[in-house]
Amino acid sequence: MKREAITLDGQPAGEVELSEAVFGVEPRADILHRVVRWQLAKRQAGTHHAKTRSEMNYSTKKIVRQKGSGGARHGSKGAPIFRHGGGYKVPVPRSHAHDLQKKVRALGLKMALSSKMRDDAIVVIDEARLDAPKTKALIAKLKDRGWKRALVIDGPEVDANFLLASRNIEGIDILPSQGANVYDILKRDTLVLTRAGAAALEARLNGESQTGEAAS
């Protein structure tokens, strides 16, 4: 499929041929949900922690005598039933990450790209480069293009000036092709691909598909 390319200034920059196998896949909500859930689970720190009974710093002396008090036979002030006592089944540090097959992750990325293509929310630009890291100048260019919530995906490396100029602009993110992921693509209204970024994504996803077929 062909797509018109433009420059950052909005000038025509020829056409780009995009792979049907990467940008023409029928999106499935269940696959996208699985990949996004996998991504967000990996991001969770898992550092939540509360003390259990054994971790409470109280005296080990028996708090009341065994018999004759008229109450229960308590032996520890750190028991969960007491105020300031340890918890029962409390959260402990752990990893929330879970496995997801590589071919499902690759398919999810294809579907995210195809979803943006279907919604006509993909813009191809010649390159994402600036002569100087000037945020004000970049804001003016983005305003002219109408990009308010956009993700820019470049080639293997991101231009340092563009990265510095864009990092203080709310709603604008830039990633190298290897960092492209389903969550960030779906989160933004517009997906901006450079020529190098589109080529790198196709090489990455077509390569992963061939690897999966060979393995099977």
TrEMBL record:
Please describe what this protein does. Answer: Forms part of the polypeptide exit tunnel.
One of the protein's GO biological processes: translation
Question: Its Gene Ontology molecular function terms?
Answer: rRNA binding; structural constituent of ribosome
Can you supply one Gene Ontology CC term for this chain's record? ribosome
Record's protein name: Large ribosomal subunit protein uL4
Entry-linked HAMAP family: Ribosomal_uL4_B (MF_01328_B)
Q: Please state which protein family the record places this protein in.
A: Belongs to the universal ribosomal protein uL4 family.
In the UniProt record, does the keyword Plastid occur? no
InterPro entries, alphabetically? Ribosomal_uL4, Ribosomal_uL4-like, Ribosomal_uL4_dom_sf
Which PANTHER family does the protein's record reference?
50S RIBOSOMAL PROTEIN L4, LARGE RIBOSOMAL SUBUNIT PROTEIN UL4M
Record's subunit section: Part of the 50S ribosomal subunit.
Keyword field: Ribonucleoprotein, Ribosomal protein, RNA-binding, rRNA-binding
